[in-house]
């Protein structure tokens, strides 16, 4: 036994080490960042309103389940942000909430949804994208349950899909970057009109951000050079740091990160090189105060809150997709707490004008998910 | 071929043995005990929580089906790992074989939608097996001819498999109109039939049980199995009796990789129905624990896989009815993995106590 068990122990420990290492890396979902989920204020204009749309009806408690996605709670990103919205809704509405984390969400997801339906929940919020197809089959079996899926369109009568106009927020980030890169009076800005962006992987979900960013930059100045790089995934800060350094070496002075955990390395590289990064998903400005020009925030917390609000107020119809954009404060730029004073007021107001133009429809930002790739990219 | 009595399953010296049942059960009891300590320390009633957990995993037909569905991939990876362990090859690369096998099955499933069900399924299973075995080939050859430790090579190749399939799905086989990293769905006729409608339990379980029976037959009734076991227990004796060590090692590693490929392939064909980047929560590594806990014995593997299946399905489902954190499941699983490899029989006092009891 002894020889065998010693070697086996080595093998298992090695396996466990790999397992632990694997936990750190996230899969290639378009959730894009790391950073503390918390109160974020959209800079240019609207921010989401966390106020109940109605006075909750008395005497009824709603049962709501929140199914956590791969990565689990504690990811300081997508799951945590959604959970923050869930917690907020629990304070404002008469709901009894259950949070469900599975050790194997991809394979067990469908069973969990099925049993949630059997348990008679009023609303099941599904954060895991890979179970989207299962909803199509499960939801119709339980007509008394509402279902919500994030980042996917509705695919069945009782399913409400929540989507985000990430391209619009990224457009504003690109416009701001193109304005700032021309201003050599700002410390850290070089004479090159060159900016950069780093995606976690090459996929439409990420290119939706990148194409919007490039379009925004070119709206300001068609001669702006936008360097694009893709990382090997969403969990490798060291890789992000190297890529960002390469972009800085090529003349970029502002780099937008759409790369999740990899992005923390990008922000670090900006801080060390004395240039700027742009954060994503949550307000990452405070990760390196003064070195993060702004963050393109995506309010998954508001999506969760909004669905519960609609459930309680009786306006959750199902069978439709709700898109949160600039108008609802679902996406937008952070308040730029540390960098607002660095940027000329004229530039900020120009970004705000673009925002108005997108809202009024004067500017249409390309959406890679619904329109495919534009001729000028890919 | 020399005549010897069949070696004991664990192949160890008799000294330092606990009575069989206790020796097999001890890691499970310790793991549950560790979980109970955590529960009591956080002000929960451990018995009540375990009751709820058991109810969520086994409290009805659907629940049992879901638990068996969670057991299936671990059963495959447990068999895959044990196949190599028996022959003295420490293949910790089943996770890698699983990923390439899963991708091969998914690729077949969505690339040939015009094939009828049976040939399509057969082709998917064949390619999954080939991909899984191919993944184990290089470490097998390196160990057999160059004496390169297979623990290192197979472990490292896991990363390569995970990243390779991630690259393939993200850059070449992404589902249309989907923002996330997953392949298109496989054709409907490529799905393994469900065993219980409304659950995720598929015919993959039956295939796993068949495979387990085959595993039993191989090692207790066939010459090849006897040779493999001899190589694992006493390589020098095996060589002296005319067994080709290299050949045996390569066969065991390839068989292990092949079954690992099926683990992933049948999970795709039976449950997920597409390839999802990073879909495995570590089935391959759980398989290592299962093989060790089960002492490479068919029934031990089945019991170990079931235990992990109960934790996985019960641990998730129980949160629908009560606020038991998932960390409990992690504590129990982690403790189990640690004590799976500990040779408790070395503790003299425990042996004496068990001898009296």
Average pLDDT number of chain B: 89
Instruction: Calculate the terminal CA-CA distance of chain A, rounded to whole Å.
Output: 58 Å
Number of domains of chain A: 2
| CATH architect. name of the largest domain in chain A | 3-Layer(aba) Sandwich
Structural class of chain A: alpha/beta
Q: Structural class of the helices, strands and pairings of chain B?
A: mainly alpha
Count of discrete alpha- or pi-helical segments spanning 4 or more residues of chain A: 11
Proportion of residues in β-strands of chain B: under 5%
Classify the helix fraction of chain B into a percent range: 55-70%
Q: What coarse outline of chain B follows from CA principal-axis ratios?
A: globular
Main sheet of chain A, how many strands, which sense, barrel?
Answer: 6 strands, parallel
What sort of overall outline of chain A do the alpha carbons produce when their principal axes are compared?
Answer: elongated
Largest sheet descriptor of chain B: none
Radius of gyration of chain A: 22 Å
User: Please, what is the CATH homologous superfamily of the largest domain in chain A?
Assistant: Response regulator
What value does the average pLDDT of chain A take? 86
End-to-end gap of chain B: 42 Å
What does this structure look like?
The complex is a heterodimer of chains A (378) and B (357). In chain A, strand 8, helix 8 and strand 9 form a beta-alpha-beta unit. In chain A, strands 2-1-3-4-5-11 form a 6-stranded parallel β-sheet, with helices on both faces. Chain A has 2 domains: 128 residues, Response regulator (Rossmann fold), CATH 3.40.50.2300; 174 residues, Rossmann fold. Chain A is of the alpha/beta class and 378 residues long. In chain A, helix 2 runs parallel beside helix 9, helix 5 packs across helix 6 and helix 5 runs antiparallel to helix 10. The N terminus of chain A is likely disordered. Chain A is elongated, with a radius of gyration of 22 Å. With 357 residues, chain B is mainly alpha-helical. Chain B has a domain of 240 residues. Chain B is 70% helix and 0% strand. The longest helix of chain B has 30 residues. The N terminus of chain B is likely disordered. At the A-B interface, helix 1, strand 2, helix 3 and helix 6 of A face helix 3, helix 6, helix 10, helix 11 and helix 12 of B.
């Amino acid at each position: 036994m002894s020889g065998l068990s010693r070697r086996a122990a080595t093998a298992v420990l090695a396996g466990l080490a790999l397992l632990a290492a694997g936990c750190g890396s996230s899969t290639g979902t378009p959730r894009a960042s790391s950073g503390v989920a918390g109160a974020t204020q959209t800079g240019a204009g609207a921010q989401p309103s966390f106020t109940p749309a109605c006075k909750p009806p008395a005497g009824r408690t709603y049962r709501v389940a929140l199914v956590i996605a791969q990565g689990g709670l504690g990811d300081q990103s997508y799951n945590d942000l959604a959970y923050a919205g869930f917690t907020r809704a629990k304070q404002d509405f008469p709901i009894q909430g259950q949070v469900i984390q599975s050790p194997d969400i991809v394979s067990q997801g469908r069973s969990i949804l099925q049993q949630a339906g059997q348990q008679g929940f009023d609303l099941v919020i599904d954060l895991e994208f890979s179970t989207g197809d299962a909803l199509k089959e499960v939801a119709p079996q339980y007509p008394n349950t509402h279902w919500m899926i994030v980042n996917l369109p509705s695919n069945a009568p009782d399913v409400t899909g929540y989507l985000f106009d990430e391209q619009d927020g990224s457009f504003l980030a690109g416009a701001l970057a193109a304005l700032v890169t021309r201003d050599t009076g700002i410390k850290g800005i070089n004479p090159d009109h060159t900016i950069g962006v780093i995606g976690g992987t090459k996929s439409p979900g990420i290119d939706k951000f990148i194409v919007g960013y490039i379009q925004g930059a070119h709206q300001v100045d068609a001669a702006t050079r936008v360097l694009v790089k893709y990382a090997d995934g969403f969990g490798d800060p060291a890789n992000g740091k190297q890529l960002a350094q390469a972009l800085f070496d090529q003349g970029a002075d502002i780099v937008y990160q759409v790369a999740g955990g990899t992005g923390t390395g990008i922000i670090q590289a900006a801080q060390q090189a004395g240039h700027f990064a742009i954060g994503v998903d949550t307000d990452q400005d405070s990760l390196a105060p003064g070195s993060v020009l702004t963050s393109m925030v995506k309010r998954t917390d508001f999506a969760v809150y909004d669905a519960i609000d609609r459930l309680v107020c009786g306006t959750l119809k199902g069978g439709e997709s709700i898109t949160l954009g600039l108008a609802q404060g679902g996406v937008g730029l952070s308040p730029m707490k540390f960098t607002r004073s660095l940027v000329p007021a004229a530039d900020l107001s120009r970004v705000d004008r673009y925002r108005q133009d997108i809202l009024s429809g004067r500017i249409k930002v390309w959406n890679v998910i619904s329109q495919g790739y534009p001729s000028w990219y890919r | 071929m020399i005549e010897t009595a069949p070696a004991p399953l664990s192949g160890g010296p008799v000294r330092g043995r606990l009575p069989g049942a206790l020796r097999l059960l001890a890691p499970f009891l310790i793991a549950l005990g560790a979980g109970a300590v955590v529960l009591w320390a956080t002000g929960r009633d451990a018995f009540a929580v375990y009751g709820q957990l058991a109810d969520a995993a086994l409290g009805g037909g659907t629940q049992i089906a879901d638990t068996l569905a969670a057991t299936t991939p671990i059963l495959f990876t447990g068999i895959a790992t044990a196949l190599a362990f028996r022959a003295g090859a420490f293949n910790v690369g089943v996770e890698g074989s699983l990923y390439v096998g899963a991708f091969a099955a998914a690729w077949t499933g969505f690339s040939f939608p015009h094939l009828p069900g049976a040939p399509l399924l057969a082709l998917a299973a064949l390619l999954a097996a080939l991909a899984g075995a191919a993944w184990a080939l290089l470490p097998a050859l390196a160990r057999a001819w160059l004496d390169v430790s297979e623990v290192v090579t197979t472990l490292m190749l896991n990363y390569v498999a995970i990243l390779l399939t991630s690259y393939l799905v993200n850059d070449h086989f992404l589902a249309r109109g989907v923002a996330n990293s997953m392949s298109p769905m496989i054709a409907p006729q490529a799905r393994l039939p469900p065993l219980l409608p409304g659950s995720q339990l598929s015919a993959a379980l039956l295939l796993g049980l068949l495979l387990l029976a085959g595993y039993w037959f191989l090692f207790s009734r066939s010459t090849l199995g006897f040779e493999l076991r001899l190589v694992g227990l006493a390589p020098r004796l095996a060589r002296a009796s005319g067994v080709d060590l290299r050949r045996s090692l390569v066969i065991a590693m390839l068989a292990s990789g092949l079954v690992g490929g099926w683990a992933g392939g049948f999970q795709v064909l039976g449950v997920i129905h597409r390839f999802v980047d990073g879909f495995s929560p570590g089935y391959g590594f759980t398989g290592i624990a299962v093989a060790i806990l089960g002492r490479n014995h068919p029934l031990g593997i089945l019991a170990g896989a079931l235990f992990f299946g109960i934790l996985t399905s019960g641990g998730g489902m129980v949160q629908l009815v009560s606020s038991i954190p998932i960390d409990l499941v992690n504590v129990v699983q982690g403790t189990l993995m640690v004590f799976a490899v500990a040779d408790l029989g070395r503790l003299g006092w425990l042996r004496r106590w068990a001898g009296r009891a």
